[in-house]
Structure formats: C-alpha cells, structure tokens
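Sequence in, structure out.
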Amino acid sequence: MGENASFTSIGHTCFAMKEELEEYMDYDVGEICNDDWKLAQKLMVHGCDPLPRRRCFSRSPKLYKQPFPVNESLWKLPDDRNVRWSQYQCKNFACLAGNATPWKLIQTAQQIFLIGLDLSVGTGTFAARMREFNVTIVSANINFGAPFNEMIALRGLVPLYLTINQRLPFFDNTLDLIHTTRFLDGWIDLVLLEFILYDWDRVLRPGGLLWIDSFFCLKVDLYDYLQAFKMLRYKKHKWVVVPKLDKDEQEMFFSVLEKPHRPFR
C-alpha cells in the first residue's frame, strides 16, 4: 500500500474526555483488562470512537459452554453461563427473550436480497428471520442494559459493535438492505441524521431498500424529520405516519424506500 509504518486510529472526541480516557487506559500490560466495558461504551457513545487499542486480555465468563449448532441456535436460548451479567439489568437470556419485538415482513416486488445491515436495539431477531430467507444480515448494536452483542453471536449471527457516530465499515454500493427500528428517534440532531442518511445511501446499492421499521418524534418536529428522509429522493414502497397512542404529542413513522439508479456524471 506504499506505507512502511502503522498509524493508530483514535476518535478526536477522545481528547475532550481526558479523565474517562485516562481511566480506560490505566491497566497493566499483559494482564487481564479491567471490567470496564461500560466505560468503553460511554466513550464510544459520546464520540470517542474508535477507542485506542490496549495490550491486555479481555475478561471472559468464568464458565463457558459451547454454543448450539447453527440449526438450533437461532431460536433456542443460550446457556446463561456464557455471559458476564454483573453490569446488566437483565440477569439471564429469558429476560431478553421477554423483550422481543414483533416481526413484520414487508414484501416488495422483484427484489433480491443477499446481504444487509440491521441497526436496532435487540437480540438479532431481524437477522434470524432473514436468514430463513437465505439473506445474510449484520446486526449493529450496542449493549444498552443487556448483552445484546453476546446474544446475537450465540445465535450464530454476526454482531457489529457500532455507534451511530461512526462511518459504516462497508464499501460503496455493497448492501441490498438497511433495516432500523428503535435505533433512530426524535432525540437525534437533524444535522447528525443527515450525515447518517448520506452514509447509508453510500453503502446501499442502486435498487437497495432502506427499511425504517419505526421512528418516534414529537408532532411539532415531524415535518423536519420527514424532510430529511425525503431528501434522499427514494422510491416509496411504504410511507405511513400514525399517532403514537401511548405518548401524547408523538408521532410514529414507518417506511420502506428504494434507492434510485443515479447516472454517472
């Protein structure tokens, strides 16, 4: 590649979190790392991403049982001993299964899916369902209150530990599908949302689908958020806005959008 040296990557926001970063990097070389994954995730969520590498061994569960074979792993609860539960609200996999979200399948005419990305808070159910249709889905997630990444891996699926601050690690025009639910909502800054949507557009192939399974926001903000999605100028296979009945003054947005074929300039 024309380089004879290596250069370490580190998120520029790390320098604004000096105290937390120093705590994260306070470890003994060659020993077991501190039990500080929540500190690492805090740094990532606030923009310190990628984190600097460390020269220590990551902690593992005290007892680890081999995962189930692939023909069983999708819908069978893993052994609870395969995860360290000390810093989670859930204390077993049955707790996670109880928080599963309903499955909805939207069919669009003349679409062939091979690979895609799911950005959702959950246990990889979307990827598991799509595997039944012979579609490979990478599940991007962070561990908010539960070991979602561990659960996804134990189901024989591919977890990607990723925050919305990071550019997607895929090349241009390579994904057939991007699905998201309960990951982007009305809390997100409009400028950041625009950067995210342009990045999603970058990795989606022409004719690929952007599936927004749910997007919540205040009614007064709905127009601005919808304009951000309309900016993509995608073909609408589904576009629905309904009131969110359990919250006053909130709206829920669903859509399935198809990336157009843009001519070269």
